[in-house]
Each structure stands twice: as C-alpha cells, then as structure tokens.
Specification:
Elements: H1 3-15, H2 18-25, H3 29-43, H4 59-87, E1 91-97, H5 104-116, E2 120-126, H6 129-137, E3 143-146, E4 155-171, H7 184-187, E5 191-195, H8 199-203, E6 212-217, H9 220-228, E7 233-237, E8 249-253, E9 259-267, H10 274-283
Parallel strand pairs: 1-2, 1-3, 5-6, 5-7
Antiparallel strand pairs: 3-9, 4-7, 4-8, 4-9
Helix pairs in contact: 1-2, 1-4, 2-3, 4-10, 5-10
Length: 286
C-alpha cells in the first residue's frame, strides 16, 4: 500500500461511488476500479459490499478507512512541517466568519501558527453566511465559519462541538429586562431587528409568522446601536455585545431555546498554499 492508494480509497468513500470519485480525482473510472481491486487483493479482503447503488463498507473496509485517514493526515502534517522548516513558511490565510464565540477555535489555531511561523499573516472578513459562501466560491477567503447547512459535495467541513444561543438584546431600562426569559408571545409585540442568516428560520415558526421586523443586519454591533437608540430589539447570539459598565444594553435568553452550532468549511479538493494547508491540518485535529 502507498499513500496515493489510501487517498484514492478515501475519495471513493467521500464521493459515494467509483465514477464520482474518478471524476473528482481526474482519472478514468476503469483505472480507479483497478486500483481498488488491487488493494482488496493485496489485503485479501472485500472492502465494499457489491450491488449497492451507494458505497457501503464492510467491517474490514471500516477499519481501513479509519487507518487510511490517520495515515493520510499524518503524511500531510509531516510534509507541511518539513516544508515549513525548509522554506521558512510565510504567506496569508484568509478567514471568513460569522460573529460567534466559536471563533475562538480559529483564533486559538492562529495563535499556535503565529508562535511558530511569525511571517504568516491573517486576514479576517466578517459577515453572514450568504456573504461568506460567495467569498469562498470566488476565492476571496480560504475557510469560513458559518451557521447553516452547506453542500457536502462541494465543501469539506467540521462541525464545532458547542452551540450559540439566540437571545434578545434590549435596553436595560426596558420593562422586559426585568424578566429572566423572553417568550415567543413577547416577540410578537416587539419591533425586531434580526440577523439576515436567521430570517427564514425565525419567520418559519408558526408562532412568529406575523412578527414585525424593522431591521435586518449581518453584523450585530451596528444592530446594537439601533437598539441603544430605541429603534427596536435585536435577536442575536448571546455575549457578542459588551453589556457591562455604562452601556445601556442587556441580553435576555429566549424562553424557547434557539441554538445554532457552527461549522468551519473549505472547498473540497481546493488547491491551497502551504500556509493554508498547515491551518487546515490544525482544524482537522479539533
């Protein structure tokens, strides 16, 4: 077995069938089928259950998948580290992100890389999912932190473990601030400022179908100024706005929990610089 065969094997599993994997790998289908058959003969096992429209692994196939992922990942890490030492790694990593405390996963990785390779620089583009997906498709950013579903055939990604909670941002002198939680019936009576990425999700709830939306935002700081100046109440992730000290703002959680987990995504089979590949290898270790 060599590393190239392991990569072919994992591509077949990712794509779900031989023909799609061959297209993604830019090789012919017969050649890829032959490589997989040779791998089975070398190991003396059957890796896939034949006859299914979509790839289904045997028990032996599942074991090999786990080990192949470890082998390929270790090889990529080794190549990246050797290249970094040899080439005094530098370059730019372009990151897009929605506003969330989950960004700490990215910033912690950036901190580790900066400590080892101070010539690597980072560009951060903030925005909502719509903006970020357009930027990643156009090659403006390399990776994105998003909070909606994405096309797994086009992007590779890792879902982050924790969830952000949607809360209501209001003035501290508002009567609602005396409540521990805000009910959905409370929302129906309020002028709301909502994140663009969550409009459909919020309005699809039957209880909230006729809410009054007075503003739509993609960055919550500007929305918080609307709240502070009495335009309305902003729905957003708890904790992203400083509500301490003299600022007349506070968050109150929604009575019914609306939570969203983030995913870090990048283009499948994208061609990246050594600096970006180093970053992606760290992400895969989360």
């Amino acid at each position: 077995m060599d590393i190239r065969i392991m990569e072919y094997y994992l591509a077949v599993i990712r794509e779900g069938n031989i023909s799609s994997a061959a297209e993604a790998l830019h090789i012919s289908q017969p050649a890829l089928s032959r490589q997989i058959k040779d791998l089975e003969e070398e190991l003396g096992v059957t890796l896939f259950e034949r006859g299914s429209r979509k790839i289904k692994l045997t028990e032996e196939g599942k074991i090999l998948r786990k080990r192949a992922e470890e082998i390929v990942h270790l090889m990529q890490m080794t190549e990246g580290e050797i290249s970094a030492v040899h080439n005094h790694l530098s370059g730019e990593i372009h990151i897009g992100a929605g506003e969330s405390r989950a960004f700490h996963h990215i910033s912690e990785i950036a901190g580790k890389i900066h400590a080892m390779y101070p010539d690597i620089t980072f560009t951060i583009n903030s925005g909502d999912t719509k903006d970020l997906m357009e930027q990643i498709d156009e090659g403006i950013i390399d990776i994105a932190l998003i909070f909606t579903e994405y096309d797994h055939a086009v992007y590779q990604g890792i879902q982050l473990p924790e969830e952000d909670r949607l809360s209501l941002l209001m003035r501290k002198d508002d009567p609602l601030s005396q409540k521990e939680t805000v009910s959905l019936s409370d929302l129906k009576e309020l002028p709301l400022i909502v994140p663009r990425s969550a409009v459909d999700r919020i309005t699809s709830n039957p209880v909230l179908a006729d809410i009054k939306i007075v503003g739509i935002y993609n960055l919550i700081y500007n929305a918080s100024l609307f709240v502070e100046d009495g335009v309305g109440y902003a729905i957003g992730f708890d904790g992203l706005i400083n509500t301490t000290g003299d600022r007349n703002l506070t968050f109150r959680p929604l009575e019914r929990q609306f939570t969203q987990s983030g995913s870090i995504i990048w283009k499948k089979y994208g061609v990246y610089t050594p600096a970006v590949n180093l970053f992606l290898n760290y992400i895969k270790e989360i």
